Amino acid sequence: MYQAGLEWILGFRLRGTTLLLDPCIPRAWPGYEIDFRYHSARYKIVVENPQGVSRGVASSELDGQALKGGGAAIPLADDGATHQVRVVLG
Predict the structure, then answer these.
(1) What is the CA radius of gyration of the chain?
(2) CA distances from residue 53 to 5, 24, 79, 85 in whole angstroms, order as listed
(3) In terms of DSSP bridges, do strands 65-66 and 57-62 run parallel, antiparallel, or are they unpaired?
(4) What is the mean pLDDT of the chain?
(5) Which pTM was predicted?
(6) pLDDT in tens, 6-24
(7) How are beta strands 41-48 and 82-89 bridged, if at all?
(8) What is the 3 state secondary structure string of 31-74?
(9) Distance (Å, whole) CA 16 – CA 51
(10) How far is CA 62 from the centre of its chain?
(11) Which pLDDT belongs to residue 3?
(12) Which of 5, 46, 61, 90 is a good FRET partner for 67, with 20 to 30 A between their CA atoms?
């Protein structure tokens, strides 16, 4: 059940050295946060839902830089740093 919730509700899928975020959450949720450790690195992930939608990534950022591709494919690094990820649904 934990894995189903993490992957299918929060949309958290690890594929090699890429983290894919594609949430399908209740419209009433304003968002959520996840702290994720990838080897020596930490990823502080914030998902915001300002329009009250259930799915669809409007924008995503890694360390303040916009990610291209229209989704939330986060490249992961084993660099010992703490990274900030921001995903906005819409």
Answers:
(1) 12
(2) 18, 9, 34, 20
(3) antiparallel
(4) 92
(5) 0.90
(6) 888 888 999 999 999 999 9
(7) parallel
(8) EEEEEEEECCEEEEEEEECCCCCCECEEEEEECCEECCCCCEEE
(9) 31
(10) 10
(11) 78
(12) 5
Q: How far is CA 1 from CA 7, 41, 50, 79, in A?
A: 10, 26, 27, 31
Which tokens is 86 given?
Answer: 């921001």
Confidence of residue 70 (pLDDT cuts 50, 70, 90): low
Percent of the chain, pLDDT > 90? 81
Closest CA to 64 of 38, 46, 40: 46
In the block, which residue shows the tokens 């934990």? 2
The Cα–Cα gap between 86 and 72 comes to 9
Using alpha carbons, select from 57, 37, 41 the residue that is nearest to residue 49: 57
